[in-house]
Amino acid sequence: MRSRLSSLVVLFLAFQNSWSAELNMHGFGQVSYSPRVTGLKPSAGKGDFIFAEERLQLSLSGSSGSNGFLTKADFFHDGLTGKSDLEIREAYLDLGGEIVEARVGRQIITWGTGDLLFINDFFPKDWTALFAGRPLEYLKIGSDGMKINLHLKTLEAEAVVIPFFEADRMPSSDKFFFFDPFTQVTNRITNKPNSDLEKTELALKISHTFSSWDTALYTSRGFFHTPIMIPDNFTSPTQITFEYPRRNVYGASARGSGIGGVVNFEAGYSDSRQDLSGGNPLIANSQALYLAGYQRQLGEDLTAGLQYYGEYMMQYDRYLTNLPAGFPKSDELRQLVATRLSRFFKYQTWKLSLFGYYSPTDEDFYLIPEVWHSLADGLWISMGSNIFGGARETTFFGQFDKNDNLYVNMRYEF
Amino acid sequence: MIKIVALLLAGWLAPVSLLHAEALPAEEIMKRYAQVFFYAGQDFQARVSMRLVDKAGRERRRSLAMLRINAKTGLNQKYYMYFHGPADVRGTAFLVWKYADKDDDRWLYIPAIKLTTRIAAKDNQSSFVGSDFTYEDVSGRDLGADSYKVLKEESLGGKDCYVVESVPKGASAFARKVSWIDKSSFLPLKEEYYDVQNEIYKVFTAGEVKEIKGRPIIVQRTMKNLKTEHYTETTFENVNYDVGLEDGLFSERYLQRPPEKWIK
User: Fold this and answer.
1) Which of A63, A115, A262 is the mutation pick for testing B, counting most B CBs within 10 A?
2) What is the interface pTM, i.e. ipTM, of the complex?
């Protein structure tokens, strides 16, 4: 913590001296609390709270001509552990040019057209932030790497190089209930891809706007960012290893105006490189993924969105043949419907929204109703709930059934 | 549609002497009004400040840079807006491709997650960033959307005006609008919006008018909602026309990396 803090100060001073142009300092103070309301406590947990923290973000940015930089450092106090820490959300340099631009350092990257549904956006995510109702930006985690943008007359290209693997943050057993097939095995280790050059993640997006349709092609070579569990022995395991197998994704998307609103389509092929035959029951099979979305303004300050999403397992027969006895069986095609309704009131100082996922194949759901209110410029509060449910405790949302929670976030930005 | 465009262009290209001719038809007046109020210059740049004041006197502010470019031919326009404040929307950028004959295309960039998204734009009478101004008040209303009638000619604040009534042809937030249009500049000095009960519910008032590069612009304007007693005062600063904005600036690229030179 101390060394990170001092390096930040050094960085700040270095920039202050070398950057003669305008420097901007901004940030916010924020409190977030999220108690579980089911009255149940995970065995490794300490109480009802899934999340409780106070946070100060300081953001320093500057530019000089077409070059610039930005650092966003979050200082926070975790009310559950009593510990304080520092998180560098972003820290990058921008090198500008008419045709080529580069962004080097820790940065958040968002690709694709889905609303809380991701096919070609393989960049790291913090799922616990979503499930505990933290402000949406915390769903995304920075990647340490380089992004190069090429602006040509007819198309735009964005190439991303990430040598340092950043995993998704998944619910942990001290805070969440979730399905764990090896619950009795407490000896667990994590084996993340190291920063060998050959393990560098690479991604390329080529986009073009045809009349007013945004279209893009994507390809990426990297890893699954959610871990798989590998037991040392299937019949009587004593140790579990979390691993991140190799995966490539190839995809495309299109988004534009249509049927009185905005329509979007996205598809991708998730190529499970370490399970090409589909015979390894521990590694996800290769999948074809697709989504179609439609968003429309229904009235003044009232918007509705509808999305349909599917995941088709490529070698379902092999999967079934190799699935160990007692393991929950996935469907060949997992389907999901997602809706979003949002309505502003009182000169947009109040917003009511409802986001919902429902899977007819998994028979599970996840609802997020929220009230947001701006008390004054820069000062807002949001209150809502995360409600999970399903027919079984082994499906993606069904496993979180016991984690229904309320949340409150309050932020003052300056 | 092509007919309307041709008509409009013919109207705008009319010799200046014609502008002061007597007894202009209402349609002609409204074409001139649209031209000076929403289409002036090939491009436009301004820093816009909004003061949103509620019944109790509580104030909110919006500060943004606004850039506009007109299509080389026809009535299409593109708008780029970059929000400087308040703090919770700082860095948000908004792009609108406005069409004369169909719904706009709108893009929104949210800097915290580096997300560019499209927003559905069916209703141009929605509030613009929580103010009393609607999208239409900011970027103009389609000329074919209303039928017009000159009610009378009278003086307002010492200026001779045409008093023109606009009645929407289709469904609209207002039942009719009465505009006092300055005979010399064709800018609206006052506009009253009536609801279906024929009561005035919203009033636009022009404050200070400046001339930039020979083009008159209302640099201070107020929209007041008489029912909620909420009003919004908008001030335009650093106004400039024909600064050489390029069409490529109005693209996704510049949502993600705002053009520093233009958004100050």
Assistant:
1) A262
2) 0.92
